[in-house]
Amino acid sequence: MKKAQVAGSGTGATAAGSAADDRDEELRRLRKLTAEQAKTIEILKKATAFFAKESDR
């Protein structure tokens, strides 16, 4: 009966599409965040190497 209600209301496909859109948006957000964090890690590695070299002098 529940399937008939969802199918009859016409919102079942829309809700599924919306959930997929939400997942895609979240995936894009997480990929962007991961890229930003990777850049930050590279900067920190370079800074660490620089200061380690400076402290040896």
Characterise the protein shown here.
The protein is mainly α. It has a domain at 32-57. The protein has helices at residues 2-9, 12-55. The longest helix is centred in the middle third of the chain and has 44 residues, at 12-55. The protein is rod-shaped and about 70 Å long.
Structure in a nutshell:
The protein has 57 residues and is mainly alpha-helical. The protein has helices spanning 2-9, 12-55.
Main attributes of the structure:
57 residues; 91% helix; mainly alpha
Set down the secondary structure blueprint.
Layout: H1 2-9, H2 12-55
Q: Quaternary status of these chains?
A: single chain
- Strand composition percent: under 5%
H/I helix tally: 2
- Give helix % range: over 70%
Annotation, overall tally of beta strands:
0
Shape: rod-shaped
Radius of gyration in whole Å, from Cα?
24 Å
* Structural class computed from helices and strand pairing: mainly alpha
How much is the average pLDDT?
85
Q: Segments where pLDDT lies below 50 for 5+ residues? A: none
How many strands, what sense, and barrel or not for the largest sheet?
none
Task: Report the end-to-end length measured between terminal Cα atoms.
Answer: 78 Å
